[in-house]
Amino acid sequence: MLPLAVLTPILLAIGIFLLLDKPEPLAPKDMLAKTQWTSDELGRALGRSMSPHFDRNQRSNVQRHLYQQVKNLSPEERRQVNVAAVHYAIDETLAQLRAMPGDKRREMMDKLNDRAFDNYMKIQNMPESKRQELRNALDSEGAKAVGGEIVNAVYGKLTPAERGELGPTIKLWIKTIDVLEK
């Protein structure tokens, strides 16, 4: 047992830290209001905005705001933020999926598949000039790092059963990439 003389300053330091530590604003309206972000906060906030449970009505506004903040970072910091965001989004989505009962899980898988299909159709119907812009953006080192993180997640974090469940969505992602490469 620690003596009270040692324990008191430790508890005081912890108490001060907890009082001074400002939690990251995670509500969409708070994210939109915040203008000063650390790289870690941006990674978590972007990752959270990619979560299937994030408010869809606010997603694009929040992501646009966050990416404006990311533009202020160095190329290496941008790459790190994007990788952290994808890593966070994947981990968060997997945690949500694994905690869901079967019917809710199927509903979420269907949502992911619907979003993948919507993205596929959007890119399929995109003018060639816009597709070229997207190709150029995806050819960056940051985009390649994000793609690598996704591949690592599919093979390293998903169980074989989960890969089977996500099979249709993964096929749509591959079709989307194929459309971009044409």
UniProtKB/TrEMBL annotation:
Name of the protein described by the UniProt record: Uncharacterized protein
